[in-house]
Specification:
By secondary structure, the chain is an alpha+beta fold. It has helices at 8-34, 42-61, 121-131, 135-151, 156-183, 187-205, 225-237, 247-267, 276-303, 349-354, and strands spanning 2-5, 66-69, 73-77, 82-86, 90-95, 99-104, 112-115, 133-134, 242-243, 310-322, 328-333, 343-347, 360-366, 374-379. A hairpin with a 4-residue loop joins strand 3 (73-77) and strand 4 (82-86).
C-alpha cells in the first residue's frame, strides 16, 4: 500500500495562505453590514465574499486529503470526500495541469482527482501508466484518426503537413500585424481582425486536421492562438480611446460575436463537438469573440473617422497611481461639454507626469466613423 498526501511544508503554507484569505473575505462580508460607505456595493461585494469564503473553507477541509493505492483499489480520503475505485474498474487516467485524474468505467464509481502537489505524485503516475491507458493519448489518437478519415485521401501525411503550414503561416501573419498595430496605428488594426474569420475557415478547409483546442499529445495544429493574439492587441489599442456612450458599441460587438460564433459552429462540422475539451474551448472562444467585436468596433470607429475634431479643455482635480501586477495611472477630470459629471480616466505614464493637479488638459472630441462619439486626452493647447 502506498499513500500520497501533501508534504508538511505545503500544508503549513496552505493553512497560512487560506487562513489569511478567510480573514480578508470574512472582514469584507462583515463590512457590508457595519460600514455605511460600503453598503452601496453590498449587492456585489457580499455575494463575492460569501462564495470566496465557501471555497476557502472547502480548501481548508481538503488539506489533509490522501490518495491510497493498494492491491485492491485506489481510494481518496479527506474530511469532505471518500471515494474508492476497484483496480479492475479503472478505465484509465488523464494528466492535466493541476491534477492527475483516475477515470473509472461508466457506472463503476466517480473519478478521483489527485493534486499535482501531492508528495510522490510522479510515482503514482508511473504506477498508473504501468497498468492503464493514458486517456489523453487515447483521445488525441481518436481525434487524429477521425480527422484522417474525413480527408478521404491516402496521402494523409501530405495533407497534415499542408494544414500545419497554413496554420503556422496565418499565425505568423497575425503576429506581424500585431507588431505593426503597435508601431503604426491604422489599417493594420482592421487587417488584423480579418485573421479571426480566416482562422475559423481553416477548421472547415482541412476537415478536422486543424483543431479548435490544443493537446500536447496530438500532432494536429490548433488555430486557438490566432483570435487570442488579436483580442489582446485590440483591447490594448482601445485604451487611449474614450467612448461617450457604450450602448451602440456593445450592440455591434455582440452582433459580431454572434456572427463569429455561428461561423465557428458551421466551420466545426468535421470536429467532435461532444468532446469536453472542444466545449470548454468553444466557451472561451465565445468570450474572445466578444472582445474581438468590441475591439473592432472601437478601433474602426476611430481609425476611419476623418471628420476632424472639436477641442475642449477640462481641469485635473486629482491624480492616482494603482500598483499591482501592472501599474495604472489615473486622472480625475472636471465635467466638460460632452461629459456632465466628473470622471476618472486611465492615461499613459507620460501624460500623467506632464499634467499636474488643477492644471488644464486637452480633450479632442470626434463624432466617430460609426456615429459613436469618442475622444482622446492630451496636453492643453
Amino acid at each position: 500500500m502506498e499513500v500520497f498526501e501533501l508534504s508538511r511544508g505545503w500544508k503549513i503554507a496552505g493553512y497560512i495562505f487560506l487562513g489569511f484569505l478567510l480573514i480578508v473575505f470574512g472582514f469584507l462580508a462583515i463590512l457590508c453590514f457595519i460600514e455605511p460607505s460600503v453598503k452601496g456595493g453590498t449587492v456585489f461585494l457580499l455575494p463575492v465574499s460569501l462564495v470566496a469564503i465557501f471555497f476557502i473553507v472547502w480548501g481548508l477541509l481538503q488539506m489533509n486529503e490522501k490518495v491510497i493505492f493498494d492491491n485492491y483499489s485506489i481510494r481518496k480520503v479527506s474530511l469532505l470526500v471518500n471515494r474508492e475505485i476497484l483496480l479492475n474498474d479503472v478505465r484509465g487516467y488523464t494528466v492535466e495541469r493541476n491534477y492527475l485524474r483516475i477515470i473509472p468505467y461508466e457506472g463503476k464509481g466517480k473519478r478521483i482527482s489527485a493534486s499535482n502537489q501531492l508528495r510522490g505524485i510522479e510515482r503514482l503516475e508511473y504506477m498508473l501508466a504501468a497498468r492503464y491507458l493514458n486517456l489523453n493519448v487515447e483521445e488525441a489518437q481518436a481525434v487524429v484518426d477521425k480527422a484522417m478519415r474525413h480527408t478521404g485521401d491516402q496521402d494523409a501525411r501530405k495533407l497534415l503537413k499542408q494544414a500545419k503550414t497554413e496554420t503556422y503561416a496565418l499565425t505568423g501573419v497575425t503576429v506581424v500585424l500585431c507588431v505593426l498595430c503597435f508601431l503604426y496605428v491604422g489599417w493594420y488594426c482592421l487587417a488584423l481582425f480579418c485573421c479571426v474569420p480566416l482562422s475559423l475557415l481553416l477548421l472547415l478547409r482541412h476537415k478536422g486536421l486543424v483543431q479548435l483546442d490544443s493537446s500536447k499529445e496530438s500532432p494536429l495544429p490548433t488555430m486557438f492562438m490566432i483570435p487570442l493574439f488579436v483580442v489582446i492587441v485590440q483591447v490594448l489599442q482601445t485604451r487611449p480611446i474614450y467612448i461617450i456612450n457604450y450602448s451602440k458599441v456593445w450592440l455591434l460587438a455582440i452582433g459580431i460575436a454572434v456572427a463569429l460564433t455561428v461561423m465557428l459552429w458551421l466551420c466545426s462540422q468535421y470536429l467532435d463537438k461532444k468532446r469536453k475539451a472542444y466545449m470548454a474551448t468553444a466557451a472561451i472562444m465565445v468570450l474572445i469573440f466578444l472582445g474581438n467585436g468590441y475591439g473592432f468596433v472601437v478601433t474602426t470607429n476611430a481609425i476611419l473617422d476623418k471628420g476632424g475634431y472639436e477641442y475642449y479643455e477640462s481641469t485635473v482635480t486629482d491624480k492616482h497611481i494603482s500598483k499591482g501586477k501592472n501599474t495604472s495611472y489615473y486622472l480625475t477630470l472636471e465635467p466638460w461639454a460632452h461629459q456632465p459629471e466628473s470622471e476618472r480616466k486611465s492615461v499613459s505614464r507620460k501624460l500623467y507626469n506632464e499634467v499636474e493637479i488643477d492644471a488644464k488638459i486637452g480633450i479632442y472630441y470626434h463624432h466617430g466613423a460609426l456615429n459613436i462619439p469618442w475622444y482622446q486626452l492630451g496636453r492643453a493647447e
